[in-house]
Fold this sequence. Notes:
By secondary structure, this protein is of the alpha+beta class. 35% of the residues lie in helices and 14% in strands. It is built from three helices and four strands. It has a four-stranded antiparallel sheet, with helices on one face.
Amino acid sequence: MRDQMAVQHNDFGQHNDFGRNKDLGSTSDQAKVPAAFQMSSARSRSGAITVVTTPQGLPTRVRIDRSQLEKRPDVLAGEILRLCRQSAMAAGIRWRDELLEAGASRDVVDAMGLPTADDLSHAEQLDDERDDVPASWMRRV
């Protein structure tokens, strides 16, 4: 059975490609990065797998604990992909909230198809239900 997933809502928008903070100079130079361009992250509930993704869900960093390397490659890859999807949904939720706070019409934001917190919750619940059944009854001897 896989680790349970939990999405973290981290703001990675102030990082450059190398993961180091950018030197933005004075506070007047520090403009808030729009949610549409902020990196997002998700991690398994155990913390054994962490991904940082673009708002579209493309992984830019993946951290895997050594204990996870004993899993079958397809199972591990599935977990990483689920985390990437959930991270993208979290980024979409932040973008939706930012647009609504800026005064965008709810109809326009809804037409953009951005996910809601309920969508993310539903996706996590489906992942949990689908993965409650073991992939194999075999065990190491």
